[in-house]
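SUBJECT: A protein chain and its fold
Encoding: whole-number codes for local backbone shapes
Chain under study, with its fold:
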Amino acid sequence: MIWKLVQFFILVLTVQICSQPFSTPETCAATLTWVMGQRYTQTSKIMPAGVVAGISALMTGFYLYKIATGGNHIPPKTE
């Protein structure tokens, strides 16, 4: 019971953090990966915790890849 309250508190805190203007998608994806991964390890249910944790892990990896390679490289327009 207490663990479910802690998970709910972390999820609410995640929503509040991700709605702030200074937060980044990387922190939101990483936090969501951690929270849903914890839920998946407790319940062993693929839907929805495992799916959301997997998608969030992929997005975290994508964001880290983009940071490591220098971000989006948009070519300049030629006239």
The two ends are 64 Å apart (CA to CA). The mean pLDDT is 79.
